[in-house]
Amino acid sequence: MKWELIAMDMDGTLLKSDKTVSKRSVEALRAAVERGVAVIPATGRVARMLPKPVAALRGVRYAITSNGALVVDLQERRAVYRNLMTLRQAERLLALLDSYGLFAEAYCGGVSYSEKGALALAVKAGLPENVLAYIMESQRFVESLSGEISRQPFPPEKVNVPYVPVELRAELRERILSLSGLSVTSSEWENLEINAASCSKGAALRFLCTKLAVSPSRVLAVGDGDNDESMLRYAGMAVAMENASPALKAAADFVTGTNDRDGVAYAVEKFVLAGEDCG
Known about the structure:
With 279 residues, the protein is α/β, with parallel strands linked by helices. Helices cover 35% and strands 21% of the residues. The strands form 3 sheets. The chain has a 6-stranded mixed sheet. A 5-stranded parallel sheet has the order 2-1-12-13-14.
């Protein structure tokens, strides 16, 4: 099988626990690009927070960001696809999250916005130092989140809640879904990621494959979270990380190593570079 496109999640998949990309992974992806394979980062992150070693790879032109809400042409620095929630949905969602006293991030135009006054909520939640450091690096802090999104040319791509207490998760998920027109997924056990109901990495991947004239049967997708399931179901070869959820591993054609043991590199080497099959 000649693979034409690799779509891969970032956090928990390509990125190690310390948020770095291993030399082996970079070399495997570079070798795939040199063989003419399109490499597509597919992440819940905003575009500006793509890992530098990935964005810098020659041949990596498109990125699926914000769980599929925005597909970005990295070369031309523009969005080629949008699947956004409405402003009204975003305003109602932020009001709900505020009633719970939760720190929230709104992704608009490839930038993540948060309220200055809400930062103390993230600290109070007891988030790990590396998560707090990422928040500080990734956010553009504003006085009013609802005010900021109303000024943007497009409504939010995604709203992210980095930490939700275990005892609130089921209740909050149910209340978010009751707003209608929204979906709730997670990339890590403690967060909630909210998008338009029609938005998914799988839908964005379908758009890109149509644009690039790539058959789904020629796509290899790798992920670890429930926000990756639609992408894996679309692809001809679905690869789950060893650290993925049991449900995702059950839906996969192949389970590779963990993100800390070069699971992406191993899958690319095995199927794309060596040409093996999953049998």
